[in-house]
Amino acid sequence: IFSPNSGNKEITWMMLEAGAETDVVNSVGRTAAQMAAFVGQHDCVTIINNFFPRERLDYYTKPQGLDKEPKLPVKLAGPLHKIITTTNMHPVKIALLVKENPLLAEVEALQKCYRVLDLICEKCMKQKDMNEVLAMKMHYISCIFQKCITFLKEREDKLDGFIKSLLKGRDKDGFPVYQEKLIRESIRKFPYCEATLLQQLVRSIAPVEI
Protein backbone atom coordinates (compact mmCIF):
# COMPACT_ATOMS: atom_id res chain seq x y z
CA ILE A 1 0.00 0.00 0.00
CA PHE A 2 1.13 3.58 -0.54
CA SER A 3 0.01 7.00 0.63
CA PRO A 4 -1.06 9.53 -2.00
CA ASN A 5 -1.84 12.14 0.66
CA SER A 6 0.91 14.48 -0.55
CA GLY A 7 -1.12 15.12 -3.70
CA ASN A 8 1.80 14.57 -6.07
CA LYS A 9 0.20 13.10 -9.21
CA GLU A 10 3.49 12.16 -10.87
CA ILE A 11 4.72 10.23 -7.83
CA THR A 12 1.33 8.51 -7.50
CA TRP A 13 1.56 7.38 -11.15
CA MET A 14 5.20 6.23 -10.76
CA MET A 15 4.35 4.17 -7.69
CA LEU A 16 1.41 2.55 -9.46
CA GLU A 17 3.59 1.64 -12.43
CA ALA A 18 6.16 0.19 -10.02
CA GLY A 19 3.51 -2.21 -8.71
CA ALA A 20 2.01 -0.43 -5.69
CA GLU A 21 -1.11 -2.22 -4.43
CA THR A 22 -4.26 -0.09 -4.52
CA ASP A 23 -6.72 -2.42 -2.82
CA VAL A 24 -4.79 -3.03 0.41
CA VAL A 25 -6.23 -1.22 3.45
CA ASN A 26 -4.37 0.67 6.16
CA SER A 27 -4.79 0.48 9.95
CA VAL A 28 -8.13 2.32 9.79
CA GLY A 29 -9.47 0.14 6.98
CA ARG A 30 -9.06 2.60 4.13
CA THR A 31 -7.50 2.06 0.68
CA ALA A 32 -5.08 4.52 -0.90
CA ALA A 33 -7.86 6.06 -3.02
CA GLN A 34 -10.13 6.44 0.02
CA MET A 35 -7.36 8.15 1.98
CA ALA A 36 -6.63 10.51 -0.91
CA ALA A 37 -10.35 11.37 -1.16
CA PHE A 38 -10.52 11.90 2.62
CA VAL A 39 -7.80 14.58 2.47
CA GLY A 40 -9.16 16.17 -0.72
CA GLN A 41 -6.52 14.93 -3.19
CA HIS A 42 -9.05 14.22 -5.95
CA ASP A 43 -6.49 14.24 -8.81
CA CYS A 44 -4.72 11.35 -7.09
CA VAL A 45 -8.05 9.54 -6.62
CA THR A 46 -8.71 9.89 -10.35
CA ILE A 47 -5.27 8.50 -11.23
CA ILE A 48 -5.66 5.53 -8.88
CA ASN A 49 -9.17 4.69 -10.07
CA ASN A 50 -8.18 4.92 -13.73
CA PHE A 51 -4.96 2.94 -13.43
CA PHE A 52 -4.80 -0.28 -15.38
CA PRO A 53 -1.42 -2.06 -15.44
CA ARG A 54 -0.03 -2.65 -18.93
CA GLU A 55 0.75 -6.27 -18.08
CA ARG A 56 -2.97 -6.96 -17.53
CA LEU A 57 -3.57 -5.88 -21.12
CA ASP A 58 -0.48 -7.69 -22.44
CA TYR A 59 -2.07 -10.94 -21.19
CA TYR A 60 -4.41 -10.76 -24.19
CA THR A 61 -1.50 -10.42 -26.64
CA LYS A 62 -0.54 -14.05 -26.01
CA PRO A 63 -2.58 -17.10 -27.11
CA GLN A 64 -4.52 -18.54 -24.17
CA GLY A 65 -5.77 -22.11 -23.75
CA LEU A 66 -6.73 -23.62 -27.09
CA ASP A 67 -6.44 -20.31 -28.96
CA LYS A 68 -4.00 -20.35 -31.86
CA GLU A 69 -3.97 -16.57 -32.13
CA PRO A 70 -3.93 -13.93 -29.39
CA LYS A 71 -7.13 -11.95 -28.87
CA LEU A 72 -5.19 -8.68 -29.19
CA PRO A 73 -2.35 -8.08 -31.69
CA VAL A 74 0.77 -6.78 -29.93
CA LYS A 75 0.79 -3.63 -32.10
CA LEU A 76 -2.61 -2.60 -30.68
CA ALA A 77 -1.72 -3.00 -27.01
CA GLY A 78 0.06 0.36 -26.68
CA PRO A 79 -2.62 2.49 -28.39
CA LEU A 80 -5.41 0.70 -26.51
CA HIS A 81 -3.64 1.07 -23.17
CA LYS A 82 -3.32 4.82 -23.78
CA ILE A 83 -7.10 5.09 -24.16
CA ILE A 84 -7.85 2.78 -21.22
CA THR A 85 -5.73 4.87 -18.85
CA THR A 86 -6.90 8.30 -19.99
CA THR A 87 -8.80 10.24 -17.34
CA ASN A 88 -10.76 12.27 -19.92
CA MET A 89 -13.76 10.12 -20.78
CA HIS A 90 -15.48 12.59 -23.10
CA PRO A 91 -16.61 10.60 -26.18
CA VAL A 92 -15.05 13.20 -28.51
CA LYS A 93 -11.68 12.76 -26.75
CA ILE A 94 -11.86 8.98 -27.18
CA ALA A 95 -12.89 9.30 -30.83
CA LEU A 96 -9.97 11.69 -31.44
CA LEU A 97 -7.51 9.26 -29.81
CA VAL A 98 -8.79 6.55 -32.17
CA LYS A 99 -8.59 8.83 -35.20
CA GLU A 100 -5.05 9.96 -34.36
CA ASN A 101 -3.71 6.39 -34.46
CA PRO A 102 -3.76 4.68 -37.88
CA LEU A 103 -3.35 1.28 -36.21
CA LEU A 104 -6.58 1.74 -34.27
CA ALA A 105 -8.70 3.56 -36.84
CA GLU A 106 -9.65 0.40 -38.75
CA VAL A 107 -12.72 -1.79 -38.40
CA GLU A 108 -10.84 -5.03 -37.70
CA ALA A 109 -8.56 -3.41 -35.12
CA LEU A 110 -11.46 -1.81 -33.26
CA GLN A 111 -13.39 -5.09 -33.30
CA LYS A 112 -10.50 -6.88 -31.59
CA CYS A 113 -10.10 -4.04 -29.10
CA TYR A 114 -13.74 -3.82 -28.05
CA ARG A 115 -13.94 -7.61 -27.58
CA VAL A 116 -10.92 -7.47 -25.27
CA LEU A 117 -12.52 -4.56 -23.37
CA ASP A 118 -15.66 -6.66 -22.91
CA LEU A 119 -13.54 -9.51 -21.51
CA ILE A 120 -11.81 -7.13 -19.09
CA CYS A 121 -15.20 -5.75 -18.06
CA GLU A 122 -16.42 -9.27 -17.30
CA LYS A 123 -13.28 -10.06 -15.32
CA CYS A 124 -13.65 -6.86 -13.27
CA MET A 125 -17.19 -7.87 -12.29
CA LYS A 126 -16.45 -11.52 -11.56
CA GLN A 127 -13.15 -11.23 -9.71
CA LYS A 128 -13.05 -11.53 -5.90
CA ASP A 129 -12.48 -7.79 -5.42
CA MET A 130 -15.14 -6.52 -7.81
CA ASN A 131 -14.27 -3.24 -9.56
CA GLU A 132 -17.50 -1.74 -10.87
CA VAL A 133 -15.89 1.58 -11.83
CA LEU A 134 -13.27 -0.04 -14.06
CA ALA A 135 -15.86 -2.45 -15.48
CA MET A 136 -18.15 0.44 -16.44
CA LYS A 137 -15.25 2.34 -17.97
CA MET A 138 -14.23 -0.65 -20.13
CA HIS A 139 -17.84 -1.13 -21.24
CA TYR A 140 -18.23 2.57 -22.06
CA ILE A 141 -15.06 2.65 -24.21
CA SER A 142 -16.20 -0.57 -25.90
CA CYS A 143 -19.51 1.10 -26.81
CA ILE A 144 -17.70 4.09 -28.32
CA PHE A 145 -15.41 1.78 -30.32
CA GLN A 146 -18.48 -0.04 -31.67
CA LYS A 147 -20.00 3.28 -32.73
CA CYS A 148 -16.68 4.18 -34.43
CA ILE A 149 -16.95 0.92 -36.38
CA THR A 150 -20.46 1.84 -37.57
CA PHE A 151 -19.24 5.17 -38.94
CA LEU A 152 -16.13 3.61 -40.53
CA LYS A 153 -18.36 1.10 -42.32
CA GLU A 154 -21.31 3.26 -43.30
CA ARG A 155 -20.22 6.87 -43.64
CA GLU A 156 -17.98 8.47 -46.24
CA ASP A 157 -16.76 11.01 -43.69
CA LYS A 158 -15.94 8.12 -41.31
CA LEU A 159 -14.63 9.21 -37.88
CA ASP A 160 -14.91 12.89 -38.81
CA GLY A 161 -18.63 12.25 -39.21
CA PHE A 162 -18.77 10.59 -35.79
CA ILE A 163 -17.00 13.52 -34.12
CA LYS A 164 -19.26 16.05 -35.89
CA SER A 165 -22.34 14.10 -34.75
CA LEU A 166 -21.09 14.17 -31.16
CA LEU A 167 -20.45 17.91 -31.26
CA LYS A 168 -23.55 19.03 -33.16
CA GLY A 169 -26.06 20.87 -30.99
CA ARG A 170 -29.79 21.04 -31.55
CA ASP A 171 -31.12 24.24 -33.10
CA LYS A 172 -33.02 25.69 -30.15
CA ASP A 173 -30.31 25.57 -27.49
CA GLY A 174 -27.17 23.91 -28.88
CA PHE A 175 -27.55 20.83 -26.66
CA PRO A 176 -25.58 17.82 -28.09
CA VAL A 177 -28.45 15.31 -28.29
CA TYR A 178 -26.53 12.59 -30.17
CA GLN A 179 -23.78 12.64 -27.55
CA GLU A 180 -26.28 12.41 -24.71
CA LYS A 181 -28.11 9.50 -26.33
CA LEU A 182 -24.81 7.64 -26.90
CA ILE A 183 -23.84 7.94 -23.23
CA ARG A 184 -27.29 6.87 -22.04
CA GLU A 185 -27.29 3.94 -24.46
CA SER A 186 -23.92 2.73 -23.13
CA ILE A 187 -25.26 2.83 -19.56
CA ARG A 188 -28.44 0.99 -20.58
CA LYS A 189 -26.39 -1.76 -22.28
CA PHE A 190 -24.16 -2.45 -19.26
CA PRO A 191 -24.67 -6.21 -18.88
CA TYR A 192 -24.49 -6.44 -15.07
CA CYS A 193 -27.86 -5.18 -13.83
CA GLU A 194 -27.00 -5.91 -10.19
CA ALA A 195 -24.10 -3.42 -10.15
CA THR A 196 -24.56 -0.67 -7.54
CA LEU A 197 -22.88 1.88 -9.79
CA LEU A 198 -25.28 1.12 -12.65
CA GLN A 199 -28.30 1.52 -10.38
CA GLN A 200 -26.97 4.87 -9.11
CA LEU A 201 -26.43 6.11 -12.67
CA VAL A 202 -29.89 5.02 -13.79
CA ARG A 203 -31.53 6.67 -10.77
CA SER A 204 -29.76 9.97 -11.43
CA ILE A 205 -30.27 10.01 -15.22
CA ALA A 206 -33.75 8.48 -15.68
CA PRO A 207 -35.76 11.49 -14.38
CA VAL A 208 -33.79 13.95 -16.53
CA GLU A 209 -35.23 14.71 -19.94
CA ILE A 210 -32.89 15.17 -22.89
Describe this entry's structure for a reader.
The protein has 210 residues and is mostly helical. The protein has two domains: 3-50, no CATH class; 54-206, no CATH class. It contains eleven helices and no strands. It has helices spanning 9-17, 32-38, 42-50, 54-58, 74-84, 91-100, 107-126, 132-154, 158-167, 177-188, 196-205. The chain is globular.
Summarize the structure.
InterPro entries: Ankyrin-MYND_dom_contain_2 (IPR052452), Ankyrin_rpt-contain_sf (IPR036770). The chain is mostly helical and 210 residues long.
| Oligomeric description of these chains | single chain
Question: Cα-atom Rg, whole angstroms?
Answer: 18 Å
Low-pLDDT stretches are none
Largest sheet: none
Mean pLDDT rating: 90
Overall number of strands: 0
Measure the end-to-end span: 43 Å
What overall geometry do the principal axes of the alpha carbons give?
A: globular
Question: How many domains is the backbone divided into?
Answer: 2
In DSSP terms (H or I, runs of 4 or more residues), the helix count works out at 11
